[in-house]
Amino acid sequence: MKRISLIGSTGSIGKQVCSVVRRYPEKFQIESLVSNSSADEFLKQVKEFKPKYAALVNESAGKKIAGEIPNGVRFSYGEQAALDGVDYGETDTAVVAATGFAGLKYSLKAVRSGKNLALANKETLVCGGELVMNEIKGAGVDLMPIDSEHSALWQALSFKTDAPFKRLIITASGGPFYGWEQERLRTVSPASALKHPTWNMGAKITIDSATLLNKGFEVIEAMWLYHAPLKKIHTVVQPESIIHSMVEFDDGGILAQMSYPTMELPIQLALTYPERFDCDLKPLDFATLGAIHFKPLNRKDFPCYDLALTSAEWGDNYPCVLNAAGEIAVRAFLQEKIPFTAIAEVIESVLNATVREKADSYVALQSYDETARQKAETFIKNKYF
């Protein structure tokens, strides 16, 4: 029986983790549930899975359901209460599915507590890659990637993050606007940007997929996960989202991981590793599929992707700043305060206003994050209001 703490239980990934637990109740027990503010959905999960511990970050949401928590479940709310859920009780694996920079502190808490880390939060490695990987090495715990692309690489490398390779090839769907000119992109609405052609995801990651910032994040993650220099990581557009990533080896052979677009496979594999179990997936029908296509992902055609790779090249605190500015810019776009094309403009402005500093502690990263957010908000206010 694997005991899980699930951080970010009411988001898209969190709900699918719950599906895996339902599928194999004899193999998994949810020890603790943590979410931000979706009180009603969270209460349903608590009643269904009856964890030993449950916590909401948002105090108002916590107070709303405090009187309805089942007997036997310890319940609390607030930021510290949520952090306490990471290593509560007999947890051996923490699934960090919280979104944004906030996910970094949960990941660090898990590793420092000696828990294996099933990681869906991109910002953990984008912002704190050096810090987190050093902590993992020191703690001797496992990191199981949940991102479909990184799970694909992990599988092709025989579940090893230190296996030799010639090239990592990360695939992208291209999003809904591949091939669009900048003039046309200026008219993109939040509603149209949220309509991803092949994946069903949360709002922030869907917008990041539309700008290809998300793909830049994945390149940065791959650098840390697989000890890969930037020059050994390549990207290609695979519109059908059938091939989730590939690894090329020194002899020229390439291994690819394939399936119809689904997050349940990488989620379940992160929990069952090193074993594989039936995931109730639709078999891949090659005859019906007919063809799988590839298109170039030219860096300069996607400003957000280009800025992400530039941040990777600069290193130190720049990826953390990239993420913070991106979070503010995407939020402003979703609130219809800035046009779609301004997301890259905001990020570039903040990166250019940043001084290089080391990213070797959580306190430092938190400071860079806060400063970058302030700069992004000031830029938006000065230019668009």
Describe this entry's structure for a reader.
The structure is a single chain. 46% of the residues lie in helices and 15% in strands. By secondary structure, the protein is an alpha/beta fold.
Q: How would you sum up this structure in a few lines?
A:
The protein is built from 17 helices and twelve strands.
Labels describing this entry:
single chain, 385 residues, alpha/beta, seven-stranded parallel β-sheet, five-stranded mixed β-sheet, 17 helices, globular
Topology:
Elements: E1 2-7, H1 12-23, E2 28-35, H2 39-49, E3 53-56, H3 59-65, E4 74-77, H4 79-84, E5 93-96, H5 102-112, E6 116-119, H6 123-139, E7 143-145, H7 148-156, E8 167-172, H8 182-185, H9 190-193, H10 203-211, H11 213-225, E9 233-237, E10 243-248, E11 254-258, H12 264-272, H13 286-289, E12 295-296, H14 303-314, H15 318-334, H16 342-352, H17 362-384
Parallel strand pairs: 1-2, 1-5, 2-3, 3-4, 5-6, 6-7, 8-9
Antiparallel strand pairs: 8-10, 9-12, 10-11
Helix pairs in contact: 5-6, 6-11, 6-15, 11-14, 14-16, 15-16, 15-17, 16-17
